[in-house]
Amino acid sequence: MRSLPRLALGLVYLHFGLTKWFVGVSPVEALATTAISEFGLGLTERHIVLGLALWETAAGLLLLWGRFRRGAAALVLAHLLGTFTTFVVVPELVLGEATFALTLEGQYVAKNLVLAAVAWSLWSEPTTTAKRGVDAQRPVDREPVEPEPLGAGSSGAGTSDSSGAGTSSSTCF
Question: In angstroms, rounded to a whole number, what is the distance separating the alpha carbons of residues 45 and 37?
Answer without folding.
Answer: 8
